[in-house]
Design brief:
The chain is an alpha/beta fold. Helices cover 40% and strands 14% of the residues. The chain is built from ten helices and six strands; from the N terminus they run H-H-H-H-E-E-E-E-H-E-H-E-H-H-H-H. The chain has helices spanning 12-18, 46-59, 73-86, 88-103, 163-172, 200-204, 214-223, 232-242, 245-248, 255-274, and strands spanning 110-119, 128-129, 137-145, 151-158, 187-191, 207-211. Strands 1, 2, 3, 4, 5 and 6 form a six-stranded mixed sheet that branches. It is globular. The two termini are 16 Å apart. 33% of the residues are buried.
Length: 279
């Protein structure tokens, strides 16, 4: 009988896939310790730390509200920041994409990019006045996906930053190696009407810009029953990211911490496509 996992737990399959990427713990040479190596209280197991971080990401609770079964909330938050500085969450995201590319193949032919704004009442970096939320503080994330909605790149900025200004950094921020487009394997980039007149950044990177307002897509579907909309996958990805409640409203002061949580969510989304059980 297959083991059933709760939505905020880490499956055995996911743990086996990412455990080798966890950075080893090292002592700070500038810090004076009371105990020699091997003495004192044993460190919290890495799997408990990972499950505690995922619990926070999935439920949106405060770090101090992490259930004791995972360990101390302050310890888990400290280890989270250590792993963030070591690039752990970015690596497991990239590892999942590389594995998916080997087994299924990333859909490079049709890519999509779009931005999404979230509330950020406590943020001190990558924050700005949200024009759709009465000028309150907000953060914008710009995301690039493949044709199946897999996240390929994520960039953060203030909510008052226009999507066009984030386009170049988003296209350059692909987490894995992007194949060069050619006549046999072109790469189309689906954009909304807000990017109209700003195709230079797209052309410079070998993409073919596909800018179609929703009204035109609706008319095209009426004329051609076989027409297939493409850009909706990036909007679906933003919706999936917001299901990780720690991302729905940003309470992290540092941009790198919030970005690490997004990287973790992207990694989970990718690995869910690969592993046969619910993560």
């Amino acid at each position: 009988m297959r083991k059933v996992y709760k939505s905020w737990t880490i499956s055995d399959e996911l743990w086996e896939a990412v455990k080798d990427e966890i950075p080893p713990r090292r002592r700070d040479p500038e810090k004076v310790y009371q105990h020699k190596p091997g003495q004192g209280r044993p460190p919290l197991p890495a799997r408990s730390v990972l499950e505690g971080i995922f619990y926070v990401l999935r439920t949106g609770c405060q770090w101090k509200a992490v259930p004791k079964e995972y360990g101390s909330g302050s310890t888990i938050h400290r280890r989270f920041q250590e792993w963030q500085r070591a690039g752990f969450f970015e690596r497991i995201w990239a590892k999942g994409l590389e594995r998916y590319d080997e087994l299924e193949g990333i859909g490079w032919e049709w890519q999509s990019v779009d931005g999404c704004m979230v509330k950020a009442p406590l943020a001190q970096e990558s924050v700005g006045k949200n024009p759709t939320d009465r000028g309150k503080n907000g953060t914008k994330r710009s995301v690039l996906t493949d044709e199946k909605g897999l996240p390929l790149a994520v960039i953060l900025s203030g909510a008052n930053t226009h999507d066009v200004k984030l386009l170049a950094d988003t296209l350059d921020g692909v987490i894995i190696s992007r194949p060069e487009p050619n006549e046999e394997a072109p790469q189309n980039l689906c954009l909304d009407a807000g990017y109209t007149g700003h195709q230079d950044e797209v052309d410079a990177r070998g993409y073919i810009a596909r800018i179609r307002p929703r009204g035109e897509e609706k008319k095209e579907r009426e004329r051609n029953p076989h027409f297939r909309a493409r850009r909706w996958v990036v909007e679906a990805l933003h919706s999936f990211l917001n299901r990780f409640r720690k991302l729905l409203v940003r309470f992290e002061k540092k941009a790198v911490n919030y970005l690490a949580l997004i990287h973790f969510a992207c990694a989970v989304i990718v690995w869910r496509r690969l592993l046969p059980v619910h993560l």
